[in-house]
Write a structure and sequence with these properties.
The protein has a nine-stranded mixed sheet with strand order 2-6-7-10-1-11-12-13-14. The protein has a three-stranded antiparallel sheet with strand order 5-4-15, with no helix packed on it. It has three domains: 296 residues, no CATH class; 112 residues, no CATH class; 58 residues, Arc Repressor Mutant, subunit A. A hairpin with a 5-residue loop joins strand 6 and strand 7. The radius of gyration is 30 Å and the shape is elongated. It contains 16 helices and 16 strands. It is an alpha+beta fold. 39% of the residues lie in helices and 20% in strands. The termini are far apart.
């Protein structure tokens, strides 16, 4: 639902936006017990007395969760706390079996970080990160007859997700538009996926974003009343929800309506936000230190070890690829997914031309993977073989046409490019053999020859095509053009 706001009214107000991103850590087991985190199993099959909060049980911190959290904090330029602790956050809801959540309140694992976003116009902006803390997830309510509690006949609860490890990453209120918010969430997901700490699958709930947004008159420093938006399952939805909410708040202020501090839901079908509940304050949760877990200490040696294990991050790779000759769009595209970028890196290690490697990977190879619904990690064609093929094109042994002809077999079966072209006699024709075929192409087309010599020089392309047809694409392009020019102009 579009809200009509006059441009002269809209520009009088500045939006102030911050994101709270919950990322599910890619650990095999939950944060405080040994239950599996596998997605999609039958309801309430991945549970135990610990994650269900049965009397007398004790949580034990999964060490991998701490490792992933520290690595994420380091990659986001955060200060890692040498000492932190867990707390209990009290609230009552059917998807929370203990009636409290184990989280971190006043001593989180990481604080005071930042990341850079790049916008479509090429400008960059630094977005601060207030804090990052570890916590356990709640369960999932399934409402019968509706996607919300309102309108449903009854609700069912699945506790499989209860106790799954999360990191909540809270940004500073540095974001000023839906476009910036979407760019921030996308870059954050790229970093987490590069680290291997979160798969970032929004459809499965592995990455969930809540938006805090207010508006204020341009030029003022005091924040307006904050509204939280939930239920956005894509980056596009984040952008649209923010743009709608900005217009809703500006319109309300313009007609004298107060803005309530509340939580609202993004309704995809109607393209609007709707009120869900009044927003709680931190005092409503009655935090206190978790008595069943000891304090966390991170030694300088542990911190140095995890820092040394960090991979090269997407921003660094994008910059390096541009220095190798790729355009901004190309560098962004090839660096977006770490597996694709790693494959590209391996092809570059064979001394292949970066532009050619990019074109083959993002062109024919990506089309092949998409058609078969495969990932690049499942590819039979190794980076070494692709690099070999690019080198043979560069030195004139084979043409791009021959490469395209043999690529399907390489993709399906792998093998050596040289062996394949020798077996099928696919090497590029040149020298006397090529000259003989060019003579034939000219002799077979006397009318076109006459027109060419009368000044219709664009027919050169016609003769090139005839040569390629006679050689089935095996003619060396440069030699073909040179010989044709020589023979057609004598």
């Amino acid at each position: 639902m579009t809200i009509a706001i006059e441009p002269e009214v809209r520009i009088l107000y500045e939006p102030v936006i911050g994101l709270e991103v919950h990322c599910q850590l890619s650990t095999a087991t939950k944060i405080f017990c040994g239950c599996s985190t596998q997605f999609g199993l039958s309801p309430n099959s991945n549970v135990c007395p610990v994650c269900l909060g049965m009397p007398g049980v004790l949580p034990v911190l999964n060490e991998r969760v701490l490792e992933y959290a520290i690595k994420a904090g380091l990659a986001l330029n955060c200060q890692i706390a040498p000492q932190s602790k867990f707390d209990r956050k009290q609230y009552f809801y059917p998807d929370l079996p203990k009636n409290y959540q184990i989280t971190q309140f006043d001593l989180p694992i990481a604080e005071h970080g930042w990341l850079l976003i790049t916008l479509d116009d090429g400008t960059t902006k630094r977005i601060g990160i207030t804090r990052m803390h570890m916590e356990e997830d709640a369960g999932k309510l399934v409402h019968a007859g509706s996607d919300r509690l309102s309108g449903s006949s009854h609700s069912l609860v699945d506790y499989n997700r209860t106790g799954v490890a999360l990191c909540e990453i809270v940004s500073e209120p540095d974001i000023r538009s839906g476009v910036e918010a979407a760019a921030y969430a996308q870059e954050l997901r790229r970093i987490l996926r590069y680290l291997g700490v979160c798969d970032g699958n929004m459809q499965e709930g592995s990455l969930r974003c809540d938006v805090n947004i207010s508006v204020r008159p341009v030029g003022t420093e005091k924040f307006g009343t904050k509204v939280e938006i939930k239920n956005m399952n894509s980056f596009n939805a984040i952008q649209r929800a923010i743009d709608h909410e900005i217009d809703r708040q500006v319109q309300a202020i313009a007609v004298g309506e107060p803005i309530r501090q509340e939580t609202r839901l993004w309704e995809e079908n109607t393209q609007r936000t709707i009120s869900m509940r009044a927003k709680e304050g931190s005092s409503d949760y009655r935090y206190f230190p978790e008595p069943d877990l000891v304090a966390i200490e991170v030694s300088p040696q542990t911190l140095a070890k995890y820092r040394s294990e960090l991979p090269e991050l997407p921003a660094s790779r994008r910059d390096r690829y541009q220095k190798l000759g790729l355009g901004t769009y190309e560098a962004n595209l090839i660096a977006d997914d770490r597996n694709v970028s790693d494959y590209f890196e391996a092809v570059l290690a064979t001394k292949a031309d970066p532009k050619s490697a990019f074109n083959w990977i993002m062109g024919d190879i990506t089309a092949y993977l998409n058609e078969r619904k495969l990932k690049i990690t499942n590819l039979t064609l190794t980076p070494k073989v692709l690099g070999e093929m690019i080198a043979l094109i560069a030195d004139g042994t084979i043409s791009s046409k021959i490469a395209k002809d043999i690529l399907p077999e390489l993709l399906e079966k792998g093998g050596s490019v040289k062996d394949l072209i020798q077996k099928n006699n696919l090497t590029v024709l040149s020298g006397a053999e090529l000259e003989k075929i060019i003579d034939q192409a000219i002799a077979d087309n006397p009318k076109e020859l006459e027109q060419y010599r009368a000044g219709k020089t664009k027919l050169l392309g016609f003769f090139v095509g005839q040569v390629m047809k006679l050689t089935q694409g095996r003619a060396a392009p440069q030699a073909t053009n040179q010989l044709l020019n020589q023979k057609l102009n004598t």
